[in-house]
Amino acid sequence: MNYSSLLIDIADGAAVVTINRPAALNALNAVILEELTAAFAELKGNNAVACVILTGSGAKAFVAGADIAAMQPLDAVAAGQFARLGHAVLNDIEKFPKPVIAAVNGFALGGGCELAMACDIRIAAENARFGQPEVNLGVIPGFGGTLRLSRLVGKGRAKELIFTGDMIDAQEAYRIGLANKVVAAEDLLAAARSMAAKIASKGPVAVRFAKESVDNGLEMDLDRAGRFEADLFGLCFATADQKEGMQAFLDKRPAKFTGR
Ligand code: CAA
Question: Which terminal Cβ of the chain has fewer Cβ within 10 Å, N or C?
């Protein structure tokens, strides 16, 4: 499929999805949101893709937020619809059955920070800046920021960032657990590709179950979460990859996973 605002490059088991609207710092409008839905739906069924890397075009921004010019004239009903569209897209990314890495190459503000948080892992370039500046515009985060930021960095830190609208740099994002690691800007895509390649070399069913267990487990009480994890662990033993992975260990050789 052709996209007007996304670039997609598939190599070595990873799809790099680049939001390509650099003149507006990759601000999210309805077109980009709908294209992201379509792109992730397409990549879901592509067996050549084990992992997705999401990034922004240009050296300055990952995504500087939802499109303020498009939002300014909206009434309450239309704004609610726009927020629900954002939630649906980010939920699709969060529930995507393969790992999604955000390669944060600059500003990740508002909807951009929310998009990065819907990904499984965030690798930040040294020039990355994170924030939820919506209160500066007289609104609150609308694509899940109040929910995901508090889950990622804790309630107190999330409230401070959301109430003040302050931007934090990559090192501070790393310190509070918002970024998994910080790399030089010129190494960002290589670092994301290298992590994606490592993940792609593992058993894909096991990686998918691990993602499901972490994400669903956090929303359940420990007792139910424990049973959910044990059931998924059991299901792994219905795969050829479990037999191969354990046999390879016993044979002292690298495993060859097939995803079956
Ligand atoms: N929406 C629309 N356009 C945006 C934008 C956004 N979120 N962010 C930047 N742009 C546009 C600017 O209007 C500007 O366009 P023009 O060249 O046509 O004037 C262009 O991108 C470059 O931006 P700046 O000139 O402002 O660049 P800068 O380096 O001086 O500042 C910045 C960079 C600090 C990121 C600044 O652009 C900024 O503060 N952007 C807005 C950040 C923001 O408030 N994001 C939250 C949006 S609300 C939201 O996301 C709600 C939600 O939760 C869903």
Answer: N
Evaluate if residue 241 carries a pLDDT over 90.
yes
Substitution candidate for ligand 1 out of 20, 25, 143, 169 with most atoms within 8 A of CB: 25
Q: What separation in angstroms does the CA of 107 have from each of 111, 127, 230? A: 11, 8, 40
Task: Tell me the pLDDT tens digit for each residue of 122-172.
Answer: 999 999 999 999 999 999 999 999 999 999 999 999 999 999 999 999 999
Same domain, 51 and 132: yes
Q: How far is the CA of 24 from the centre of ligand 1 (A)?
A: 7
Task: Please work out whether the CB of residue 141 comes within 6 Å of at least one atom of ligand 1.
Answer: yes
**Structural domain harbouring 223:** 204-251
Mean pLDDT of 29-45: 97
Q: Residue 44 and residue 50: Cα distance in Å, rounded? A: 9
DSSP secondary structure code for residue 66 in this structure? B
Question: Is a pLDDT exceeding 90 seen at residue 178?
Answer: yes
* Residue 226 sits in the same domain as residue 103: no
Query: Can you spell out the DSSP letters for 110-150?
Result: THHHHHHHHSSEEEEETT-EEE-GGGGGT----SSHHHHHH
Ranges of beta strands (E only) in 12-128 are 14-19, 51-56, 61-63, 100-104, 107-109, 121-125
Q: Is 162 in the pocket of ligand 1 (CB under 6 A)?
A: no
Residue whose Cα lies nearest atom 11 of ligand 1: it is 24
Q: Is residue 256 part of a domain?
A: no
